[in-house]
Each structure stands twice: as C-alpha cells, then as structure tokens.
C-alpha cells in the first residue's frame, strides 16, 4: 500500500517533520495532537487513514510488510520517528517476531531519511514479563526503576529495544524508550483502552440500573497503583526527542500521582451516577458481567444517537480485566525523568473525567 497523497517528489528537509507510527491509537492520537499544536509537520502512519486536518498527512501501510513499508516511506524524509504501535500475537515468540520485525523493517525503510531521533513506546511488562508469564517468577520490587536488569524470559519489548539500538548505532540517531503503565486517552477501535471501556461499562450500568461492580482483585482494590494519561506520554516523547537530557535513555512515564481503586472507583461511579460496589468473594470480570450486552448497546446507540453502535469497537473487556485482576502491586518510579527535566504532572481522576467529558461531547457515550 502507498501514501494516501499523490506520488510527487518530496525533497529532503532539515525542518522538524515527525513520523508518528500508529497514529490512530491512544498514544499516537495524543502525540499527533501535541505535535500539530507545537507547529510540527506530521506524517501519520496507520493501516487506515484518520481524519483530515491541517499539518497532518496520512500514510497508509501494513507495518508487517517490509515491501509495503519501503514503498510507502521511500519518498518521505522525517527528522523524528515516534513508534507507538504493536500487534498482539498468540504466543510471545510470535510477538517477538512480528513486533520486533515491525521496528526493524520500518527503520530500515528510513535509512535514506535524515533521522535525528527515534522514540519507542513500550510498557511495564518490561518489568512484569510477557502475557504468557505475566507477574510470575522473580520480578523487581516496586516502584519499578529503569535500571533494573531485564527478566530472564522472552519479551517482545526487549526485541523492539534491540532493533532500535541496532538501527541507532548503524545510522547515528539518538533514541528514547518510554515505559508507560496503563494508558488512558482518546481512541476508538483500540484493543487496550481502559478509559473508554470503563465509560461504556458505567453507561450500561446506568441504563439498566445495575451496580457498578469492580471487576478485579482485592490486591488492586486496596493496593497503590498509577496510570499514564496519553497526553503525558506524548509530552514526554516530544521532550525526549528535543532535549539533550532525553537522548539515549529509557524512561518510565506515568501521571505522577498514585491512588487506590477503592477511592477511584467511587469517584468514577459518581461521575456516571451509578452505585459503586467493591470486589466480592468471587471475582466478577467484565467479560462475564457484560456478556450478551451487544444488543443493549446497539439499542442505546439508537436511543441516544451515539456515534458508534458496535460495542466491540469501544470496550476491551479482556484488557481491563487483566489490569484490574492482577494479584501484585504495580507502581513505577518516575524520578529519573524528573531529575532530567521532565516535570509534567496529572491527577489521574482529572485524566478520567476529562476523557469522559470528551467522550460525551463526541457522542461516544450517552450524555445523561
């Protein structure tokens, strides 16, 4: 597949031009917003183009096809690359092959470009292990710090990092790695979207008069945790790409506050006007609670004139269940980036409510 624009020749330029890989996802969308607001020219790479806007040119390509990437990127000359995409596979070995390969092939397709910096988004599975052995065996003490050694287990995050390091050594650009916790932000059709999932869940509970039951573990309900607002992630990536203190470093990236779900859950419930209920003796995962609710959402979409009637494009029950069902504490240390000069900070309850306000304004959830 090739660029959505015509194939006119584009000469190399030294003015800042960002290639955002995965531009329709949670992190990529927030990053595109920030770059445009700061006056960058943005090349937005995704399988399907998003909405047209000033300062953004969409490029459609299959990240898993080396030939497609070379064809799509041959005429492009970005100065900065922000890699925010991944593709979940059935096994970790397949995750390594596919996701490591996407980083390798994309950067190889840009060998001709005047790349100054490449930023890569990974996550806290760097410390917790992959899906197949998540939280099993020895893991670092919390809060997780960036200088912890890699776990002795296959992990596609490590494969992505290694491909990044190899390309940087080959081509002479600087790099940064951004290890986020659960990212909440604005995106539709994303497989890992807790913010929209909880908004949809609460909206269904309100519609049907159901209690808003916490689907996770006592450990998550009572323990400390943190999260990553997509705007914080975007801000840190741009900072690391443009400030010498961010070059050739890995950084944890979270909002900066910590919270307990036993306090956050009632606050979210109050926003939607539903009754919060904590974890019971028997877990109540969302995949179980929301089974068979597709027709209910379709009816709600019609009655409330919502923009999306397909429940599967809005809610990722499995991902939220996995996050909230953990039996271990997950908190990241962010002092490394603070000392280096990155000081942006959010309160997580504000991240949630700002996001819910936007969902209502865009008629993704009922405004009741």
From TrEMBL:
Domain PRISE-like Rossmann-fold: 76-366
Gene3D superfamilies associated with the record: NAD(P)-binding Rossmann-like Domain
CDD domains: 5beta-POR_like_SDR_a
One Pfam family, short name: PRISE
SUPFAM superfamilies cross-referenced by the UniProt entry: NAD(P)-binding Rossmann-fold domains
Matching InterPro entries: NAD(P)-bd_dom_sf, PRISE-like_Rossmann-fold
Record PANTHER family: 3-OXO-DELTA(4,5)-STEROID 5-BETA-REDUCTASE
Protein name, UniProt field: NAD dependent epimerase/dehydratase
Species of provenance: Conyzicola nivalis
Phylogenetic placement of the source organism: Bacteria, Bacillati, Actinomycetota, Actinomycetes, Micrococcales
């Amino acid at each position: 597949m090739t660029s959505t624009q015509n194939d006119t020749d584009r000469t190399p330029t030294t003015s800042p031009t960002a290639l955002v890989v995965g531009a329709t996802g949670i992190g990529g969308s927030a990053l595109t917003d920030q770059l445009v607001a700061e006056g960058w020219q943005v090349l937005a790479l995704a399988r399907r183009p998003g909405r047209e806007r000033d300062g953004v040119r969409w490029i459609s390509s299959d990240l898993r096809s080396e030939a497609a990437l070379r064809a799509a990127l041959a005429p492009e000359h970005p100065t900065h690359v922000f890699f925010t995409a991944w593709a979940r596979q059935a096994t970790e070995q397949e995750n390594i092959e596919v996701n490591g390969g996407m980083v390798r092939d994309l950067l190889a397709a840009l060998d001709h470009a005047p790349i100054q910096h490449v930023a890569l988004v990974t996550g806290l599975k760097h410390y917790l292990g992959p899906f197949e052995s998540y939280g099993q065996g020895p893991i670092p003490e919390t809060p997780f710090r960036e200088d912890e050694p890699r776990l002795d287990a296959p992990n596609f995050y490590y494969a992505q990092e290694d491909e990044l390091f190899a390309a940087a050594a080959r081509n002479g650009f600087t790099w940064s790695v951004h290890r986020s916790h659960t990212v909440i932000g604005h995106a539709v059709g994303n497989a890992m979207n807790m913010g929209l999932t909880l908004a949809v869940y609460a909206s269904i509970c309100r519609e049907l008069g159901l209690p808003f039951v916490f689907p996770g573990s006592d450990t998550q309900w009572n323990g400390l945790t943190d999260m990553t607002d997509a705007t914080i992630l975007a801000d840190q990536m741009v900072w690391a790409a443009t400030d010498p203190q961010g070059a050739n470093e890995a950084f944890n990236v979270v909002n900066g506050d910590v919270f307990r779900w036993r306090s956050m859950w009632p606050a979210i419930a109050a926003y939607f006007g539903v009754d919060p209920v904590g974890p019971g003796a028997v877990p109540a995962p969302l995949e179980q609670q929301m089974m068979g609710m597709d027709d209910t959402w379709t009816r709600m979409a019609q009655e409330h004139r919502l923009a999306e009637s397909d429940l599967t494009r809005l809610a990722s029950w499995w991902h939220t269940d996995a996050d909230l069902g953990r039996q271990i504490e997950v908190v990241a240390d962010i002092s490394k980036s603070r000392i280096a000069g990155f000081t942006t900070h959010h309160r997580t309850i504000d991240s949630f409510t700002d996001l819910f306000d936007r969902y209502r304004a865009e008629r993704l959830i009922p405004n009741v």
